[in-house]
Amino acid sequence: MKKYFNYLFLFLAVFTIEASAQDKTEIVGKVWSIEKTNAWYKQYKWINGADFLPSTAINQLEMWQADSFDPTTIDKELGWAEGIGFNTMRVYLHSLAWKQDQAGFKKRMDQYLTIADKHHIKTIFVFFDDCWNKQAKIGKQPEPKLGIHNSGWVQDPGDPDFKEEANFPALEKYVKDVLTRFKADKRILLWDLYNEPGNSGKLTASLPLLKNVFTWARAVNPEQPISAGLWAWNFKELNAFQALNSDVITYHDYEEPQWHQRVIDMLRSHGRPMICTEYMARTRGSRFENVMPMLKKENIGAINWGLVDGKSNTKYAWDTPLKNGEEPKEWFHDVFHKDGTPYKTDEVELIKKLNDKK
Question: InterPro entries from the xrefs (predicted)?
């Protein structure tokens, strides 16, 4: 019954978005035309891959800070991704890592892109994020908490920082600096401006920052498309803004395929290419074997959460901590063990088959 009401909200939200499309006051800058976006999408073979954090990093800061940036592990793990045909990784940035060392941060981004490109992998970079721990601190990051999903993941710009407009000029400088540096970089597929705005109980308090980041991005006018993924179908105001201002429709769905298919059918009304930038939570019924073939059939990009079991602990479910750190009966996310062996051989064989990878 809960799912029914969630999808009723989605149905109503789609009509709200379409009705709002006639009122251009919600459009920030010049959104790519449907024709331009579809032509862009046709350049690429089927987009698929994972949300990527190297197994040696607990969060975005540990990935990007100079002292803990780990190109050796990144190279190794992206090699495993290439081996099964993955061609896209979605990677989170963090404004504090940029603030600490602006030139070094961009240099490490370039280094990451060079590694990914060597493995024939495009990158979706993510700027802001409303999920998990409220505050981040520069420096050595905490050790993982046993058996707890994403115990060290941090929001960006944090809470209450996200709603304090005095912070916006510095965030604008960050976004524009990064976008200007990489605006024509063909190794980057797409810019994901804000992950799950309104999460962590923020709701529409995130809307001012969301609107601003789109304004800043449109001012730079990168050659790559921009987007912010829909994820909570009862957030009508956020959803309308995200959908109307995104060049490509991106979204998250961790439900079973019959519910996921309903989301696809409703979002089709926008006429734009679609990329599912988060899916695959085995214990919720969203699996490679039942969702990934559906996404390929629908020509929708498929980016699952997690590549390698590591410090993020995302093999544990969101709401089912195992505080003694024992192995879960079934992994929630992730594809590979730390040594590169597949969690499930039949899954990687399916992924390879879908990617025509021998």
Answer: GH, Glyco_hydro_2_cat
Percent of the chain with pLDDT over 90: 91
pLDDT of 11-55, one tens digit each? 555 545 555 544 543 788 899 999 999 999 999 999 999 999 999
Pairing of strands 301-305, 48-51: parallel
Q: What distance in Å separates the CA atoms of residue 320 and residue 187, rounded to the nearest whole number?
A: 37
Say which residues have a Cβ less than 8 Å from residue 110's Cβ, sequence separation at least 6: none
Q: For 215-242, write each residue's pLDDT tens digit.
A: 999 999 999 999 999 999 999 999 999 9
Please answer whether residues 38 and 273 qualify as being in contact, where contact means their C-beta atoms are separated by less than 8 angstroms.
yes
The burial class, CB within 10 Å (0-12 / 13-18 / 19+), for 300 is: buried
The distance of Cα 34 from the centroid of its chain, to the nearest Å, equals 22
Q: Which domains does the chain have, with CATH numbers?
A: 2-9+46-354 (3.20.20.80)
Which strand (E) or helix (H) includes residue 19?
helix 2-20
Structure confidence at residue 28 (pLDDT): 85
pLDDT of residue 145: 97
317 Rama class: left (phi>0) / alpha (psi -120 to 50) / beta: beta
What pLDDT, in 10s, does the model give residues 267-309? 999 999 999 999 999 999 999 999 999 999 999 999 999 999 9
Dihedral, CA of residue 94, residue 95, residue 99 and residue 102, to nearest 10: 70
Going by C-alpha positions, the residue among 307, 264, 221, 290 that lies closest to residue 28 is 221
Unique residue bearing structure tokens 């309903």: 262
Identify residue 144 by its one-letter amino acid code: P
pTM assigned to the model: 0.95
CB atoms closer than 10 angstroms to residue 86? 27
Angstrom distance (rounded) from CA 262 to CA 264:
5
Distance between CA 336 and CA 345 in Å, rounded?
10
* CA distance linking residue 26 with residue 20, whole number of Å: 8
Residue with tokens 């890592």: 97
